Amino acid sequence: MSAHAGRLVVLSEEDPVAQGVGEALGPGRTTGERVGGAFVYDLGDGLFLLKRPGLHIHDETLGPELADALPWSPEAVIFPSVHRSESGRACLTAHPLGNLGSEATLGGQPRRLVPVPARLLSATLLALSEASSRVGLPATFEATHHGPGLDLPAFFVEAGASSEVWKDARIHREIAAVVRALTPEPLREDPIVIGVGGGHYAPRFGDLVRLRHLAVGHMVPRHQEGGLDGALWAELVRATPGVSGVLFASAPSPLSAPPPRSVPVLPEGALALRASPGNGPAGRSSAPGKGLTP
What we know:
Shape: globular
Number of strands: 13
Strand content: 15-25%
Number of domains: 2
Radius of gyration: 18 Å
CATH architecture of the largest domain: 3-Layer(aba) Sandwich
Structural class: alpha/beta
Helix content: 10-25%
């Protein structure tokens, strides 16, 4: 039996990136615990692995099955996955889960969000940024989208958006290394924010995580700002544990409901610099061909 909580990597048996990352992580040793008939494996250093049939985004029974089967609660559930894009954009991504709108065609429930471990998510982006030069793909956030629905902290780590990328063993190894070494410690004191505005790939928030001391939780893209009523603000706050403020990608548009008083709007200038532009992770922009501005 597992003595304490750790990070749980969940692999879809239908997802080529998940399967490749699983192979790169190695077999581990069984904990003796079963979830849905599948063993949980201990990979060491607080990392555990579980394989699941079907696609991640529609795995709505995962949460209840984990609660029934495990005597411990994962501090984060991490889903390696393919990234799909209508534009065919090739990139490494990390993003929170849930549906900001009234539809849930890609899993989860309408206007329901999954708790996001913001410091782990942001640490993942920084680590993917370091890996990006080795695999020739930019690293970027994506705004909050798709399932599965969970009550546990969770996020996706993706690579795409073509079969060539999905099958690339170099990329599998890099994502596996990121997941294995992942820790929130470098961001332990950084304020957690909800990001609002910008495009689906949230380039400004990715750049700011590299540049300044902050951790980003849920992200609401510009095209979904119109849905920010009191109920959705409450859901964003609930599902971003530890949140201390709201950060806008640019000057905010008029909103139907302002952020609650408990999460004031933070100006970028109030966030301390992480490193000088061009030095370390802060120097690598999520938007190819674009530099950083303080």
